[in-house]
Design brief:
10 strands; alpha+beta; 4 helices; 185 residues; elongated
Amino acid sequence: MDREFLIDLFAGFGPVTIRRMFSGFGISADGINFALALRSGLYLRADETSFARFEEAGSKPFSYETRARTMTVRSYWQVPAHLFDDTDEFAVWARDAFAAAQRAALSKRTSKKGAARGNRLVPTRGGAKPGPTRPAVKKTKSAKTGKVAKSVDKSADKGPAGRKTRSATVARGRQTSRAASSRAR
């Protein structure tokens, strides 16, 4: 499929952006990719609401071969052959595919926000409480053996928000300077 054919096919849908992608083109509208034109055919975005419609039309999901197995991507389905002759019906299917792509983008955005909230401060009645934090792992190399050893940073050095407190930093600086002066002796 060439670019001119795709422009004519999507004319009933509205303006689209067609960009080179893999072995063909990615087709998007408003910055959301909703169709793929590859060597193996034209594929539209689908989700739970439109899977049955594609299956009824005899379409199959996009699949490709790797060295080990065949991979199937259920989010893109091949355009039924009869739609290439009926541009009005194709525009309806393209609008449905765009709506599926919008829903997928929205769910991806909300899941990213939820994951990011886990690391923020959570307001409580007594003040802000830190979210889950992982202990800092410090890697040090042994001078004698040259092997790398891992040690977990002590949480006593951490303040209420998971940051090192000034007193812990000063105390650590004193320890370092004492160790350096004892080595010099």
